[in-house]
Amino acid sequence: MNRDISSNQNIVRYENGQLKESVDTYVTEFPLTIMVNGEEFATVICSPTNMEELVLGFLASEGALLKKDELKSIQIDDSKGFAHVELTKSLNDRFEYSTKRMIASCCGKSREFYFQNDAATAKTSLSKITITPQQVLNMMTRLQSASTIFKQTGGLHNAAISDGDTFFEHRQDIGRHNALDKLYGFCIQNHIPVRNKVLIFSGRISSEILIKAAKIGVGVILSKSAPTTLAIQLAHDLNITAVGFIRDGNFNVYSHPERIKAAKDSNE
After folding, report:
1. Which CATH code is given to the segment(s) 133-255?
2. Active site at which residues (predicted)?
């Protein structure tokens, strides 16, 4: 069960030199505590939609869930803000830390254990996908068209995963990591291979976002915003094509440009 991702509230607005009563729409912020095998694993501050996908994608990207068949059950109790996950294997063999972790929705180093397991879970891409410049532009246009709640609130990150043609799945969340985890969880749930897929993202490509893409396993990430220097270094190292500033029919390719080809049959 999902709660509303946004709500309308009465506010006072200053406009044209006057203060007046008005109504505004803003996003819901929801703490979800993930319990794994009866123990508290993390609390994720998120938008309360697609929460099962979020939990699956988060656990997989953090290395707690390595294969779908390791998942015995997952139950979301959104009335109390808990996700109860049962795995076939203990986490003690995979993680040395045992204290509660708060996963914030803000930007920057929001994860305490950000560097601890990246080497084990961030994969060098083996993707063979190639896409045309027009597909790059079309995917970004489609993401922006799907971002209806963002247009109302300005308070969400939007992301999508696509094959460049018929497959396109969109998710949104107050946390940029969460939006990507939801997409990853969707693919895990539905047994959709991710290697030859493309991530489309509304925000800047930071090193954290680039590593998240590597953990998911895609070979291409697209953004309408800018990358950081460390993100581009990692993109070169991890064999990921990073494309930014996709605006007004133009874009920049920062790493592994060989995946962007003009030929219409480039995906063959």
Report:
1. 3.40.140.10
2. 107
| pLDDT digits 0-9 by tens, 48-91 | 899 999 999 999 998 899 888 999 999 999 889 999 999 998 88
Closest CA to 37 of 71, 83, 87, 72: 87
Q: What does DSSP say about strands 30-36 and 82-87: parallel, antiparallel, or unpaired?
A: parallel
| Residues 5, 254: Cα–Cα separation, whole Å | 34
Distance CA 205, CA 176 (A): 10
Q: Which phi and psi angles does 202 have, rounded to 5°? A: -85, -25
What tokens appear for 57 in the block? 């994608």
In the structure encoding, which two tokens stand for residue 37, read together?
């095998």
pLDDT for res 7? 63
The CATH architecture annotation of domain 30-121 reads Roll (3.10)
158-212 pLDDT, tens digit per residue, is 999 999 999 999 999 988 899 999 999 999 999 999 999 999 998 899 999 999 9
Q: Coil, helix or strand for 17?
A: coil
Check if the beta carbon of residue 259 is closer than 8 Å to that of residue 130: yes
What is the model's pLDDT at position 111?
38
Cross-strand pairs, 8: 25
Report the 3 state secondary structure along 236-261. HHCCCEEEEEEECCEEEECCCHHHEC
The answer to whether residue 187 is catalytic is no
Which pLDDT band holds residue 262 (cuts at 50, 70, 90)?
confident
Domain boundaries, the chain: 30-121, 133-255
DSSP state at residue 58 = H
Query: Which residue is catalytic, options 46, 106, 107, 187?
Result: 107
Would you give the distance in Å from CA 109 to the centre of its chain?
Answer: 15
The pair phi, psi for residue 230, each rounded to 5°, is -65, -35
Mean pLDDT check: name the lowest of 56-70, 90-104, 200-214, 234-248.
Answer: 90-104
